[in-house]
C-alpha cells in the first residue's frame, strides 16, 4: 500500500477516535449553588380546604410543590370523626403521622390504626380503602406524592 493511501485511511480513524474520546470524557464540574434554607413556622403555613365538596373540613398546607397540580409534600388535617367512603387515589403516597388516631381500612380487610410517629406507604391505582379519624381528636399527617392529590370514590360502594 502506498504511504498516501495509508494516510487517507488513518485520518478518519484518528478523527473518529478523538471524537469518541471527547464524548467519553467527563464534563467539567459545574458550579452548584445550594438553595437557601427555608424556615416555615406552623403559624406561617397556608392552610386551605382540600376539597370542600368531597372532604368537608379537611385542610392541607403545601410545603413544596402543589397538591392540585403535581408532585408535593404537605401537611393534611382531618377533623375528629371524619370518614370517607371507599375510594382510590391515582398516585402513591408516603405518609408520616403526627397527631391523632388515623384509621384506614383496606377493602375486605381489618382496620389499621396509625398514631403519632407511624409511617404508611399507600399505593396508587386500584388500592381500595376507607380513611377516617377517630372521634377522640383531629388527625395531622405529612404526605408526599409524585403526582397531584385526588380522591376517587368507588361507584356503588358503601363502607
Question: Please, could you describe this protein's structure?
Answer:
This protein has 159 residues and is mostly beta strands. Helices cover 14% and strands 36% of the residues. It has a six-stranded antiparallel sheet with strand order 1-2-3-10-5-8, with no helix packed on it. Residues 4-16 have low confidence and may be disordered.
Report a brief summary of the structure.
The chain is mainly beta and 159 residues long. 14% of the residues lie in helices and 36% in strands. The strands form three sheets. A six-stranded antiparallel β-sheet has the order 1-2-3-10-5-8, with no helix packed on it. It has a three-stranded antiparallel β-sheet with strand order 7-6-9, with no helix packed on it.
Topology summary:
Elements: H1 3-24, E1 48-51, E2 55-65, E3 72-78, E4 87-88, E5 93-99, E6 102-106, E7 112-114, E8 119-122, E9 129-133, E10 139-145, E11 152-153
Amino acid at each position: 500500500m502506498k504511504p498516501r493511501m495509508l494516510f487517507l485511511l488513518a485520518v478518519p480513524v484518528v478523527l473518529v477516535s478523538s471524537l469518541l474520546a471527547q464524548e467519553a470524557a467527563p464534563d467539567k464540574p459545574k458550579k452548584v449553588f445550594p438553595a437557601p434554607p427555608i424556615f416555615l413556622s406552623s403559624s406561617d403555613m397556608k392552610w386551605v380546604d382540600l376539597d370542600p365538596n368531597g372532604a368537608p373540613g379537611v385542610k392541607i398546607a403545601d410545603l413544596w410543590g402543589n397538591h392540585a397540580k403535581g408532585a408535593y409534600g404537605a401537611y393534611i388535617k382531618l377533623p375528629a370523626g371524619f370518614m370517607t367512603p371507599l375510594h382510590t387515589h391515582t398516585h402513591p403516597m408516603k405518609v408520616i403521622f403526627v397527631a391523632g388516631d388515623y384509621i384506614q381500612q383496606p377493602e375486605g380487610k381489618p382496620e389499621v390504626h396509625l398514631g403519632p410517629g407511624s409511617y404508611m406507604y399507600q399505593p396508587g391505582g386500584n388500592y381500595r380503602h376507607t380513611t377516617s379519624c377517630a372521634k377522640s381528636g383531629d388527625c395531622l399527617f405529612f404526605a408526599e406524592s409524585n403526582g397531584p392529590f385526588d380522591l376517587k370514590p368507588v361507584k356503588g360502594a358503601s363502607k
